Structure formats: structure tokens, C-alpha cells
């Protein structure tokens, strides 16, 4: 029966549906298809683009990619296939070529379209992938490469799911580094002991600690040059006067051979490296303790920081450890012994990594299996609380630890411990109080940060306003100065005009009247606008007096009358100004 083949291609820019011509003939000659995939013209004669649906945004592309990787049919893909794939009849069947079998099964379940991922389909998809930018209009190789790169970064970032605040990956790396450092420090310290024992063999029996031995070797150096003057430094280092005296006596009567200064320099350099490694190891232990308080505080308080970190590292993550049952947590780390026991039909191991905790060492030989089972149960509870609680606290860890202590007493003495329900109720009440306090502290911190940010913004605004006000003040001070200068220039010009007129005319009026007029003018300029009515009354009185004086005095010449009119006009204009 004839079949029409359509190929679905998922690209970072969108979905593409292609029609393959002469499917039956092409399927029989697969080597010819392999050759034609390299040539664009030959491939386009066999395969043609039927429809293309671009993604709306980067988040939409990421959602579609996640659904395809999980083998689920996305809504966008479903709409695209329903609208573009034709329905096959009895004579002509429709087959959709898909790159993945999971997505093909999902399409057949949802839409009832037959899908295929074998035969000629992989070669056709390879050719489409090679020539996709040439087959879609408006898409270039550069833009397709950018889309693939961006989608790849976002997809990998979503898969990693790295959380800064709850980073159990840092715990895994730090505990593995700590174990490696312990091995290296032990081997290096043994090398120092062997190397320095040629010169001073008695020191190995006096000092057993590796870190202290390296420090003493660096301090002593050549045993023949070591005297009582450096005894104080040795006592401070060893923290024991008896040991210091024994080291001094042994250095005087040692059986070791002499050492050259070059060999001594190499030994001292190696001891300084070992000392720096041990100090770094101490800092790494503090870092691990702080991380365990942030990520898994209950597990750390129950079983210890290092043992809890080893459990998390062996499980792979805190969520994986929380998913494990208590029976798996009990044997975690003893897989070889477990499978060996299953193979030989022997006794299975009672404990794995939990054995390093102090509880199993304190228990008796008969009770070690019981206490390990009980401790594994409490560890699984603590890991689940740490994994799924929003605000982690140490309250549950303290109560669970007390329960293990009570169980140890019960196994040794027979004291009946408190019931689990009562303990958990108390723990829940305390945890709610502690979580409320932590939430309040976080709110206060957020408020302080907001206030600080707002205060900084206000200071910036005030500085900007101060700058603008200073500029405005400078501009305002410059404007009145200009106005004053203009007024002075006008008054000087008027004064010059009056002086010229007074020089040309006869000097009949006394100088006192001029002074009075100038005073009147100054008063009129200085007085406010509210006293205008008083000024008008005074002017009327002055005019009446002048009229009376004019009646008593002889008649003036017409030139003098013109000059007086000009002066009165100038005074009126100044009053109006």
C-alpha cells in the first residue's frame, strides 16, 4: 500500500514538518539517500518544507524542549501536528518520521498518527539538520547557531538546578577533599618521619602526632645546633616541659648520623608544606561545619557533621538520601559486604557509614545491631526534615539525638524512654517558635536593607537638589545685579541730563530744594507699595503749597515752566516703576 512520509524536525527556533517525495523508492535505496544528503539541490528535490512553527519566546522553547526530552507531547506540538499533518485514508496511509521513539509513542497515543524512527527516517533527519537554514526562509546559519546555543545553556541550567543557599554539592566536594587530604597528610608525615629519622631517630618515639612532629622538626633543624636557649619555644610548641626536656636529652645523645645543610633545607621545605596542608584541612573542617548547619542542621546535630556529609556524598544529594528508606541508610557504605553475604549466603552487615558515629561505639556487642537500626531510622527522619523544610532549624536534631541517648540507656539499664509522639509534639512546638523568630529576623533585615537603599536614594536626590538650587541662586543673584546696574545707569543718565539743563539755564532755585526732592525720591523708592495712598496725599499737599508760593512769587518765564513739567513727568515715571 502506498504511504506518504512526513518528517517532524525539532529545532531550537521552532518545529518543522517536511514532506518526503517517492517514499517507497527512497526507502529501497538508502545509500543513494546518504549520498544526496550532502548536496542541497538533490536533497531539496527529495524533501520539501511543508510547515514551520517558530517558538514564541525562549521560555516557550525551553518548555517544549523539556517535554520532548521527557517523552511528552506539548500543546504547541499537538496543535502544529493537528493543523498540518493530513489525515490518511484507507488507500493512502500517513507516517510521521520522528527522531525519538518516546515522542513517537506519545504522538500515536494522543493523535492516533502512525510514527516511525527507523529505516530511512534517521538519514532524512540528518539531511534536514544539515540543510535546515537553507530550507527555511528568513533563517540563517548564524541565527540558528545562536538559537541552539541559548537554548542549550538554558536547558542545561534548568537540569542542574543549582541552588546557592541549599548547595549540597559543596558538601560532597568538601568531604571528598577532606578524605583525600587525610590520606595525603598521613603519607607525607610518614615520609618526614623516615627522612628525619636518619638524623634524629629518637624523636619518633617521643612525639606521636604527625602535625606536632612536623612543627618540632621545623623548629629543631640540626640537632647539634639545638641548645637550651630554644627550650622556651619548644615548651610552648609541645605544651609539656617533660617532653621538651626529653627531646633535649635525646638530641645530645642521639644515634643518628650527621646531615648536610642542603638535605636539611629540603626536609624543612617539605615540613612547611605538610604544616600548611594540615592547617588548610582544619579550615576545611570549619567550612564543612558551617555548610552542614545551612543545608542539613538536623542530620549534622544527630550523627555529626562529617558522618552526615559522608552519607549525603554517598547518596549523591540530600534529596536522594531523603528518598532512601531507613534499611538502606543503615547499610549505606557497606554494599560490597552485603552482596558478598548474599552470594555466600552468610550474615548481612549490620551497619555501613553509620558505624563512625559515637552511638554504635558506646553500645555493647549485643546491642550494636539494634542501635544501628534505630539510628538509621532517626537519620532518615532528620534528612527528610532538612530536605523539605523551608526554614531549617536544629530543634528536631536535638530531640532525635536525645531519643537515641534514651534508647542507649534503655538497652543498658532498662529505663523506659519517652514515647515518640510526645517527643515530636514538643519538637514541633519548639520548631514553630524558632521558625517565627527566624522569619522576624529576616523581615527586619529586609526592612533595614530597604531603608538603607531608600536613604541612599534620598541622599542622591538631596545632593542633586542642592546642586540645582545653588545654580538657581547664582542665576537669581546675577539677575538683580544686572537690574541694579541698569537702574544706576538710568539714574546716572538722568542726572547728567538734569545737570546739563541746569548749566544751560539760570540758577534761580536754591540747592536745598534739590536735596529735598532727592530725599523725597529716595523715600518713594524705598517705601513699600502699601503706602501709595499716603504718598499721593503728600504730593497733593506739596502741589498746593507750590501753588500758594507761585501766587505770592512773581510770574516765572515759560522756559522755567517747561523744565518743571519735565521734572514732574520723570518723578511720575519713577513712581510707576
Helix content: over 70%
Instruction: Please count the beta strands (DSSP E, at least 2 residues each).
Output: 5
Spatial strand order of the main sheet: 3-2-1-4-5
Number of H- or I-type helical stretches: 26
Structural class: mainly alpha
Give the terminus-to-terminus CA distance: 109 Å
Outline, from the CA principal axes? elongated
Low-confidence stretches: 24-28, 478-486, 498-530, 547-555
Arithmetic mean of pLDDT: 80
Radius of gyration: 50 Å
Describe this protein's structure:
- It is a single chain.
- The longest helix has 85 residues, at 420-504.
- 72% of the residues lie in helices and 5% in strands.
- It is elongated, with a radius of gyration of 50 Å.
- Helix 4 crosses helix 8 (141-160) and helix 14 (261-295) packs across helix 16.
- It has 577 residues and is mainly α.
Briefly, what is this?
This protein is mainly alpha-helical and 577 residues long.
Summarize this structure as a short list of keywords or feature phrases.
elongated; mainly alpha; 577 residues; 26 helices; five-stranded mixed sheet
Task: Compile the SSE list and pairings.
Elements: E1 3-10, E2 14-20, H1 23-28, H2 30-36, H3 40-46, E3 47-54, H4 58-69, H5 75-84, E4 93-97, H6 101-111, E5 114-116, H7 121-135, H8 141-160, H9 168-197, H10 203-206, H11 210-220, H12 231-238, H13 241-252, H14 261-295, H15 297-303, H16 305-315, H17 318-323, H18 326-331, H19 335-344, H20 358-362, H21 368-388, H22 395-412, H23 420-504, H24 511-526, H25 532-552, H26 558-576
Helix pairs in contact: 4-8, 9-11, 9-14, 9-16, 11-12, 11-14, 12-13, 14-15, 14-16, 15-16, 15-21, 15-22, 21-22, 22-23
